[in-house]
Amino acid sequence: MKCNFHTHTARCNHAVGLDEEYVLSAIEAGFDEIGFSDHTPWPFESGYVSPMRMRADELEEYVLSVNRLREKYKDKIKIHLGLECEYFKDYIPWLCATGEKYGIEYFLLGHHFSPDEEHGLYNGRIKTHAEIERYKNDVLEALESGLFFYVAHPDIFMRTYGEFDDYCEKASREIIAKAIETKTPLEYNLLGLTHCKEDGMKEGYPHSKFWRIAGEMGALAVVGIDAHDPKAFLETEKFEKARAMLESSGVKLVF
């Protein structure tokens, strides 16, 4: 099976293309299944409006669009409905109720901010051990919740951190161990390779040392395109190369 469950839409304000264009590109690239998992809205009590996720009043239309495409292309590809979410504890009851209301099939854990988006730090700009510790603890608690299909970009803390030091290794081992304990796959995130080049980093995320440890420990894994452009589905060589690397490293590919 050739699958990708990490697909965004233009509603998040940093992706391009029509929903249908993502489906058509996936079909062209030979995918058997895809899942839309755009950034979930959150009901921020202060009225804060996020610049990097859909608004709450766009969620219903998002669901209708995905469901229309699911029906239209049911003979060519299987389409799933999901959301990518942080673990914002105060809003998890809302997330669960919203998922049930709209028939959301799965949640991806994409923990971009700690402790929250309004007041916290973007976890792709971590610089200190204390910031890694906070990110790690949030991810561990999220994994224990059992809410998430898999962990998107679990090593995002390496985006601009620099050297993969002893503290990074310790945090990585704890995240990987908890993922194994809870039988939750970890995502090898292909968009991170692009971010690494944009940031001028020799290596950011996905980080080879994180994935070496994941292989040694025997973690479950998936390859996620994290598509923000329909053309991302057409980079089939990158996708297959990542799968081959993971298979040889010792991780257990789920699909």
Please tell me how large the radius of gyration is: 17 Å
Strand order of the largest sheet: 1-2-3-4-7
Poorly predicted runs are: none
Order of secondary-structure elements: EHEHEHEEEHEHEHHEHE
Fraction of residues in H or I helices: 25-40%
**Class of secondary structure makeup:** alpha/beta
Strand content: 15-25%
- Please report the distance between the alpha carbons of the first and last residues: 6 Å
Question: What's the shape?
Answer: globular
Based on DSSP secondary structure assignment, what is the total number of beta strands?
A: 10
Mean pLDDT: 97
- Number of H- or I-type helical stretches: 8
Characterize the biggest β-sheet: 5 strands, parallel
Notes on the protein architecture:
The N and C termini lie close together (6 Å). The protein is globular, with a radius of gyration of 17 Å. Helices cover 40% and strands 16% of the residues. The chain is an alpha/beta fold. Helix 4 (129-145) runs parallel beside helix 5 (166-181).
